[in-house]
Every structure is written in C-alpha cells, then in structure tokens.
Design brief:
Its EC number is 2.1.3.-. The chain is α/β, with parallel strands linked by helices. Helix content is 43%, strand content 23%. The protein contains nine helices and eight strands. The termini are far apart.
Amino acid sequence: MMDTVFTRPIEKQFEFDASVASVFDDMAARSIPFYKENLALIARLLCAILKENDTVVDLGCSTANTLLMVHKYAKVPLQLYGFDNAEAMLEIAAQKTHAFGAKITLEKADITTLCIPSAEAIVANYTLQFIRPPKRALLVASVCDALTAGGVFIFSEKIVHEDPVLSKAMIEVYLDFKREQGYSDFEISQKREALENVLVPYTEQENKEMALKAGFAQVETLFKWGNFATYLAKKA
C-alpha cells in the first residue's frame, strides 16, 4: 500500500501505529536511500559468516523485512527471532512470514527492557534512533552482553554531520531524494514535524563511540549514503 500518511495535517507525534504499519514497507523504501539494497547487503553478509543453527535477533523488527531477507539468502538453517513493541507491525510481519514460508519467531516486547536471547548476530535497523539517548547506550551494552564471543551487532541509523555547512547541504540532498520518490513538500514538512524529538540521530563518530563504550572490540561502517549509515560492531 502506498504511503499517504502525511498528506493530511498531523494530529500527533510520529508513532508506529496501524496507519504507519499498513504502509511501512512503501514508506521505508521511499524514505531511506538504498533501503532494500542495504538489507540485502546485511543479509548476505550474515549468511556468509553464520553457521548452521546460529541465532539472529532483530530488535525493532517492524514488518520483518530484514529477517525475511536473511531467510532468503540463508544456505543453512538459522534460528530467527524478531522483537517489536508495535502490535500492528507484528501482525503484518506474521502475515509476511507465513506467505514466504519462513520460520521466524515474532514477539511483542519493549526492547529497552527485554532480556535479549543469546545470539551470534543481533540486528537493529533504523531502531536505535527512536530510543532516548540515556536508554540507547544501555541497550547497546545489553546487546553486547547477549552476543556470543565473536558475535556481531549490525545497526543502521540516520545520522547528522558535525560540520554545519555539510549538514545543511546533506539535508537538501536528502529532501531532493524524497521529492524524487513522489513526496510533496507538504508531506515532507508534516513528517519532519511529527518526528521532532522522536527521532534523535547521532553523528557517525558518536554511533561508533557508543558501541565501543558498550564493550565491542571494533566497529566498521558497512554502508553509507548521505545522512544514513550502517555499522557492524564485533564482540571480542
């Protein structure tokens, strides 16, 4: 279904309710540059390093796009788990996993208080940015604790740039991207207002430092386009 959520004046801050869940896949594909390609990159990489019956946990799994991509590329059986606090998202995720014949365990949970299952890989795509900074660092530390030795944490985030001139220019580049996807200036401004103080982005360096302080041995940037980046943090 096509995203028309912000064609009308907003009445509340952004949340992942039924209206967003019903158009989430279209919204993500049209709002995040190279969204599908990035998920494919993540899935292919995980499938290249994971072994039979290894566990993958997706925190903030939304409609299960990442886990379904892992299912698509997996050459051996994997244990796939998705957690999200939005019931509407999980309902659509369940429908999609059934349609694709994927064995994915989905559960409603607040990931900031969740006892994260032990896993070889944990993913959080465009999730941390919606968590308040004090809880964000604690969650990343919990992720590190839940990973097995040598395990990986892959997370994607919207980012800001330290240089104000570059930051302003990159915002304009991104706005042009959204216009090219068919969003009107009214829709763009409505969504920006709805996300104010809901989505709180870090700089690329701040994201890396957060992971290192949480206990990860190394952090690499896997993918970057403008003000979006994907990282891989590895546990010692």
